[in-house]
Write a structure and sequence with these properties.
Blueprint: E1 18-21, E2 25-27, E3 34-42, E4 54-56, E5 60-68, E6 76-80
Antiparallel strand pairs: 1-4, 2-3, 3-5, 5-6
Length: 81
């Protein structure tokens, strides 16, 4: 087993924290009219067997709009965390 480095890789870089699981509801902070979105997948990440992927800062996600303007609700959108 390797040494525990406290989240720092062997190269000295800090690994990103992935704290948002699939199904998380996020507050939308733009001017599209969406107030709340529910994350359904993360673009570009693949999970291990029986493990759902999580998103972190800077990841692109696919989400559905749960609260917002009537035209935008129930639509699938892409967003950046």
């Amino acid at each position: 087993m390797g040494k525990r480095t406290g989240g720092i890789m062997a190269t000295g870089m800090v690994s990103p924290v992935r704290a948002l699981p699939i199904g998380a509801r996020l507050t939308c902070a733009d001017n599209t009219g969406a107030k709340e979105i529910q994350m359904s997948s993360v673009v570009g990440l693949k999970g291990t067997r029986r493990r759902l992927v999580s998103a972190g800062v800077g990841d692109q996600v696919v989400a559905s709009v749960k609260k917002g303007t009537p035209e935008l609700r129930k639509q699938i959108v892409r967003a950046v965390v």
